[in-house]
């Protein structure tokens, strides 16, 4: 279990500028290596939030920036406990008139999961921006400082209100609902190809071109204020020759829900479907998503008779986030389906 560190705070001089709080969680943006040409074999989550802020003094011209260290880990270590802590802290901060926007610095590997979680639990119209980097802070042409500068500018900008949680990366601004990591090492890894971006930076200015059509933030029904532990949801990856025993194993391990990374349009083998139906009969919720990477998993009449839920265009890792939150409200597949159609 990752220890949750005590928050530290750095505050710059009071001005008339918008107040932006940076919540740092680690990742490559806080990573360092002994070699400045090393962009793959470094340690993530090394530098503290004070160091990240001091590296980009330009941002104090656009916002009054202060920082808190939530955790300092590579993003594969981000767990439900940290998600709850982060979501609750952001809601507390945004309820204050002294905070105008939030930036979360985060490792890129699971960044889209945290961003989508926040998109579903933050109860505010104020901007929340999640940002990271693909090159550690020590690298030649590190992408972290410019990404962080843009993220702070976005969080400080009134035009960024009511957009839902945004991912600002490599000059692009994506909706947490749609953006996904698409490349193992490239700096332009975050893409929203099918649905498009919310906008992009050109020079100093964020230009918005579209809005997300799904419910988020101030429209959400999900309330984590009294939740201490999220339901357990596991992902099963479909493949040729797969078997129903994988579902049995997940149910035996206490899964409240299972997301299937199905093939194609959420397809499952007969053996897999038998396992899924057995899981449903044990009271475990099962959502059909896809391993394909883009497109909607269309809802079938048989989903309703089998008690299954279709994932809309959520990839498996985001479907897991929505299923966890759905299970805090209901076990009824029809009601869960309603959340999947709308969020
Ligand atoms: N680029 C990155 O941030 C990758 C890193 N392994 C992380 O997710 O923490």
Automatic annotation (TrEMBL):
Its EC number is 3.5.1.1. Homotetramer. It comes from Domibacillus enclensis. The keyword Hydrolase applies. The active site is at residues 28, 108. One of its GO terms (molecular function) is asparaginase activity. PANTHER family: 60 KDA LYSOPHOSPHOLIPASE (PTHR11707:SF28), L-ASPARAGINASE (PTHR11707). It comes from the Bacteria. Gene3D superfamilies: 3.40.50.40, L-asparaginase, N-terminal domain. Substrate binds at residues 75, 108-109. This is asparaginase. Keywords: Hydrolase, Signal.
């Amino acid at each position: 279990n990752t220890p949750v560190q005590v928050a530290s705070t750095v505050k710059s001089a009071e001005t008339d500028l918008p107040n932006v709080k940076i919540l740092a969680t680690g990742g490559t943006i806080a990573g360092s290596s002994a070699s400045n040409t090393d962009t793959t074999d470094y340690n993530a989550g090394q530098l503290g939030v004070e160091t990240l802020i001091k590296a980009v003094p330009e941002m104090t011209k656009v916002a009054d920036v202060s920082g808190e260290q939530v955790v300092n880990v590579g993003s594969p270590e981000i767990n439900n406990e940290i998600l709850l802590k982060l979501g609750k802290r952001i809601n507390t901060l945004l309820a204050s008139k002294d905070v105008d926007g939030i930036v979360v610095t985060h490792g890129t590997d699971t960044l889209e999961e945290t961003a989508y979680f926040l998109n579903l639990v933050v109860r505010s119209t104020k901007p929340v921006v999640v940002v990271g980097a693909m090159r550690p802070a020590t690298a030649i042409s590190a992408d972290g400082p410019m990404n962080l500068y843009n993220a702070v500018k976005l969080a400080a900008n009134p035009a960024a209100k009511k957009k839902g949680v945004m991912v600002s990366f490599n000059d692009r601004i994506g909706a947490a609902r749609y953006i996904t990591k698409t490349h193992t090492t490239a700096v332009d890894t975050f893409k929203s190809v099918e649905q498009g971006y919310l906008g992009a930076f050109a020079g100093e200015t964020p230009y918005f071109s579209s809005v997300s059509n799904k419910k988020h933030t101030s429209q959400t029904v999900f309330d984590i204020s009294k939740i201490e532990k999220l339901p357990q949801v596991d992902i099963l990856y479909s493949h040729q020759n797969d078997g129903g025993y994988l579902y049995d194993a997940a149910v035996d391990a206490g899964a409240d829900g299972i997301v299937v990374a199905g093939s194609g349009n959420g397809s499952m083998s007969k053996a897999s479907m038998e396992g899924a139906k057995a899981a449903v009969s044990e009271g475990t919720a099962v959502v059909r998503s896809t391993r394909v990477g883009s497109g909607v998993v269309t809802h079938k009449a048989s989903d309703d008779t089998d008690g299954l839920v279709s994932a809309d265009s959520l990839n498996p890792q985001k479907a897991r986030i929505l299923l966890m939150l759905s299970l805090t409200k209901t076990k009824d597949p029809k009601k869960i389906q309603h959340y999947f159609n709308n969020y």
